[in-house]
Amino acid sequence: MTGYGYKESMFREFCARLHGETSGTVHSYANALNTLDELFAAYNPLGLECSVWDVEDESLLMEIYRLIKAEERSPSPGLLAAFPSGRSSHLRNRFCSSAVMKLIKFNEENSSLEEEIRNAEDAADLGRRLERLLITCRPDVNQRVSGGAGQYLFRLAIVRIYGGLCAVTGISAVPVLMASHISEWTNDTENRLNPSNGICLSATFAEAFDHHLISFDSSYRMMIAPAMRSYLADEGTRQCFGPYEGKRMLLPADSRFLPEQRLLGYHRRQCGL
């Protein structure tokens, strides 16, 4: 399976979860941007010095958009002659221009999120800011009953706050990183978007945490719950979880967003610890 970079992984989720695109459309948008990278490597009329994915300047992205849009409308081959073999369909089907506009929107919302993280007084304040940002992004959605859009935004914030790393293993593969709620999303409406109610965990550990098989003590060391003990007889399970028992989690660099002790205490009780 092809591995995606951090930004491409988050862009795919942005399209799929926040804007409800189908998986096929998301794949086409991402492939279109990768195709543009190949195109500009062969023919670079704008003098790009980096990947299209790394362009943050909106005015430059708009130049790319106008160039591609003109090519999509042109009856002559134009850039098609320089397009990677077999990839010109992205241009003909107008996925390239649409993908660039999606990237602009993605960059805008990421910039907004980074600003909110910087300016938040504390975790509770950031939670309120995320509520407002969610409503700005999706005015049709009530965040208190929304699943996908709210959880997507919460995960985006948590992954950033934890530096794109699993707090237990240090894994940096973004597609398998989850934002586990300490106090459940369905029950604790006040803390749904509060980052101190979240921990960045890779999928296996996130599922174990959500099913109350592991937790963390007041010093942020991983604990194995009684319900998990019987599974440790299996060598694979023991090798997966055993080395991390008693190990301190990787905490956010910013102390404003440490996991809240009160919520961790609640989670430990749910685990029987």
Question: How would you characterize the overall build of this protein?
Answer:
There is one protein chain. With 273 residues, the protein is mainly alpha-helical. The protein has two domains: 1-111; 120-273, no CATH class. It has helices spanning 6-18, 23-42, 58-73, 89-92, 95-119, 123-137, 148-161, 203-210, 226-229, 235-241, 261-271; strands spanning 177-181, 198-202, 214-216, 222-224. Strand 3 and strand 4 (222-224) form a beta hairpin. The longest helix has 25 residues, at 95-119.
How much helix is in the residues? 40-55%
Sequence of secondary-structure elements: HHHHHHHEEHEEHHH
Q: How many helical elements? A: 11
- Major sheet: arrangement of strands: 1-2
Distance between the termini: 39 Å
Number of strands: 4
Uncertain residue ranges: 141-145
Radius of gyration: 22 Å
- The average pLDDT is 86
Quaternary organization: single chain
List the helices and strands and how they pair.
Blueprint: H1 6-18, H2 23-42, H3 58-73, H4 89-92, H5 95-119, H6 123-137, H7 148-161, E1 177-181, E2 198-202, H8 203-210, E3 214-216, E4 222-224, H9 226-229, H10 235-241, H11 261-271
Antiparallel strand pairs: 1-2, 3-4
Helix pairs in contact: 1-2, 1-7, 2-5, 3-5, 5-6
Features:
273 residues, mainly alpha, 2 domains, two-stranded antiparallel sheet, 11 helices, 4 strands, 6% strand
